[in-house]
Amino acid sequence: MTEFAIICGSGGLERATSFAPVTCPGSRYGAPSETPRIGTIEGAEVLVLARHGVPHRLAPHLVNYRANLDVLSQLGARRVLALNTVGGIHPRAAVGAIVLPHQIVDYTWGREHTYADAAELLHVEFTDPYDDILRRRMLAAGTSAGIELLDGGVYGCTQGPRFETAAEIDRMDRDGCTVVGMTAMPEAALAREKGMAYCSLSLVVNPAAGRADNAIDLEVISAVSREGMQRVERLIRVFFQREVGAR
Length: 247
Known about the structure:
The chain has helices at about 65-75, 130-145, 165-175, 185-195, 220-245; strands spanning about 5-10, 20, 35-40, 45-50, 80-90, 100, 105, 150, 155, 180, 195-205. By secondary structure, it is of the alpha/beta class. It has a single domain, classed as Nucleoside phosphorylase domain (Rossmann fold, 3-Layer(aba) Sandwich). Strands 1, 2, 3, 4, 5, 6, 7, 8, 9, 10 and 11 form an eleven-stranded mixed β-sheet that branches. The protein is globular, with a radius of gyration of 17 Å.
């Protein structure tokens, strides 16, 4: 049993490939995206799960978020660090920025988004979807690592897998969204239903639709993601150094 879990997005977490698969408990919600792996980062035991599977095969709307969070919870995870690649809407969310969002606007539809059913009615408090303690500890790790983090922002979660139109991004801008992605929901809400503290590291890999002269380029996104995730990995190492040192 371990306390921390990292859910990797499109950028992945390269060092996790050397982690050992764990015996995956069954979930009444079906199969998770992949078998979680376990390893140590700076002396801390950590579970890692690839949101889109290995190899990357699951589109955002096809991810079994309920099974992913259920399995991690059964394995003992109480705190979740979610890695997300996003598009930048607000000017301060420039390409390469790492954003620690504090709010979410959910534009998804049709996803299995709750553990509530006829046997158990769940009304969870979700005013602040991201755990403030985890966010503050991550910001402190960023200061220690010399990595600039954008403190706060609104993650607008769209359905995907297509990218948004310029008009949709304009609407999201009016709604107050800082970045746009496809995976924060229902993941964050399900973590809350499971009583798990949840924090996102959102790496901006492209300007959102209509926010640049050129069209979205998947090759450029891939290159920015590789460079950015090196900084994210360094940040995570320092985060766990501090967590272990505080014990």
